[in-house]
Amino acid sequence: MNAARIFVASLGLATAAGCATSPPDPRPLNEAHAAYDAAQKDPHVRKFAPEELAQASAALARADLLRKEGAKDDVVRHQAYLATQSARVAQELALARAAQAEIASAGEARNRILLEARTREVEALRQEAREAEEARLEAELAVERAVSPQPDSANLEAELRALEARRSDRGWVLTLGSGLLFDTGQSTLKPGGRRRIEEIAQVMRGHPEGKVQVEGFTDSQGSEPYNQALSEKRAQAVTIVLVDSGVPPGRIVARGLGPNFPVASNASEAGRQLNRRVEIVVVTGEASSAAGGSAEPQESREKR
Amino acid sequence: MVAQAEPEAARYAPQLLHGAQTKLLLAQAAMQSNDNQRARRLAEEAEADARLASASAERQRSEQAVVELNRTLQTLKEELERTTP
Q1: Chain B residue with the nearest C-alpha to that of A113
Q2: Which ranges in chain A belong to alpha helices (H)?
Q3: Is any Cβ of chain A less than 8 angstroms from the Cβ of B63?
């Protein structure tokens, strides 16, 4: 027992005196290296805490140098400890800053989500407004067509525009509502309608080179054969008036197309009214000079 | 530095902070017995501990904030999906 105590005591003395016989404790320095390696390998640290990493590196170098120079254990341990804590600081700060960056971008994500929601809301409201406006215009048109416009013989061009004649790739297209020209289910022209056709015939005489296509259309109510026949008879009635007014019959092609080629949806009365119409197309220029008679209208129709 | 770290570190890194405080006390004691070298080393280590405690607290706070924010964002998304056409 006594010998053991003396042995321990002498060991303690030897250590206290920094005796060269006891090997240096590698643990603190190893730990410092391990801590630095972990920090250095972490991509977060290189991105978010490069300065702190550099400080840890310097502290570690100091500790290594002290060991190399044979400094006392507690001196090396102290410096190694500072290096270890330094490396850990670099990692903690890197993680903190990475999280802060994520918070910043989450803020952006939040704004994007809100903006998207608001945009969708605005777009929905705009769409509603557009649809309401379209419905209103259709109603207006329907009312206009029900009432015969005042004849203005002074300016044919203006008159035609009042009938909504428009230039298209086929030529001058005049769309006349069936309600204007005919009574319901009838194919006899009303007086007001007849007058309108006569005015159009005058325009034809201004384009002697032009061919005329008269096309009758109905809405989708009722059977197809019935609508087909009605639209045909109406197209013929219009053609007769054109011929009577001086348009050469050879230049006119009349067709009934029934419920085909609607210009509006048949789901609403406003739409159906738009579909019940006669179109008069004055085919001009290159189109009319193309060879063939009945083949050509077919082509133009298909291209539409 | 130790004083600065105190409020947050006490919550997030109590052991480190306690370690730093202990070392400071030991440093004061060392100074009183004129062991200036030891006192300096203890003070330096206390400072390093306090720095680490502070950094650790910041990390934990930030990570919590991320979790919280992601949760809020998710709730916001779900709320908007429900109510927006």
Answers
A1: B77
A2: 2-16, 27-41, 43-48, 50-68, 73-146, 156-162, 178-181, 191-206, 224-244, 269-275, 285-289, 295-303
A3: yes
**Residue of B62, B70, B85 with shortest CB distance to A100:** B62
Residue A260 pairs in a beta bridge with: none
Which strands, in side-by-side order, build the sheet including A211-217?
A166-168, A171-177, A277-283, A211-217, A252-256
What phi, psi does A153 have (nearest 5°)? -70, -15
Cβ distance of A89 and B76 shorter than 8 Å: no
Residue A47's H or E segment, with its range, is helix A43-48
The predicted model scores a pTM of 0.49
Per residue in A61-90, pLDDT (tens digit) is: 999 999 999 999 999 999 999 999 999 999
pLDDT digits (tens, 9 = 90+) for A109-132: 888 888 888 888 888 889 999 999
* Total length of chain A: 304
A280 contacts A200 by C-beta, under 8 angstroms: yes
